[in-house]
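Q: I have 287 residues here and want to know how they pack in 3D. Can you give me a structure?
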Amino acid sequence: MEENKISDENTENNINSDKTELLKSREEILAEKQKDIEPMEVIKESSITELKVAKPKMQEFIEFIRDLIVIIFIVIVIRTYIVAPFQISWSSMETSYHDKEFLLVNKLSYANEFGLFIWNPSRGDVVIFKPHASNNKEFYIKRVIGLAWDTIKFEDWEVYVKKSWDKTFIKLNEDYLSAANKWKTFLPFDVKETEFSVPKWDYFLMWDNRNNSSDSRSCFMSCSIANSSHFIKRTDIIGRVLIDFWYFNIFKINEFSWAIEWIGKIKWSVAPRFFNTPKTWDYKELK
């Protein structure tokens, strides 16, 4: 009996060990198959994700035209309503601003939409406007001297202002003028009056280079021209100076052959002032 029990136990142990070996061998086979399958699946997935459907040429062209239209539209909106670049083409604002100087003008502040103004020019602001003068210049740059209802008077080569609620004239402190222009504000020979009353919504504007420019004193060209005026309407003022980039020239013209030559270096005649540009003036004597 004991021998039979021992033999039975041995038989069961052998069967269990065989089952264990079968299970191990089965797991090993599955593991080997898994190793073989996984790289294939990864490769298959990566190859699928990298595939792109080629667009028709016509669709690519249409998308390019669409993007170009959007860019042009954004540029037009920015230049029309927000900021716009200008270049000075005369020495009329010396020494505050100089000939050939590049400026960025803030048009948003003085925007005029549907008859509504976001903001109005202040006395002392340097503004860009349309003069409507017959000299083929579309835009002028000048400083605001007189506001609506002001009276401007020229006496002893200086400028006086009387506000609408004041009874006396006050002489302006114009320290921004150069030594060549200070105390030398003359009236043109064909202008007989010495006092000018600024109408509603109009402005009296003057250049800083008083002896070498045309401004409100001369009706921006000549007061003898038909429909000329000493004043500029609010709707003709389009913006105020925002940033001053100055001007640099990397070429020069040969004085003998008029050929354009490369200078080889950039040299500022006057360093750019950027946001520190003298874009306005505070007349404290009028406060």
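Q: Anything worth noting?
A: Confidence is low (pLDDT under 50) at residues 1-10, 37-48. The first helix runs from residue 2 to 49.
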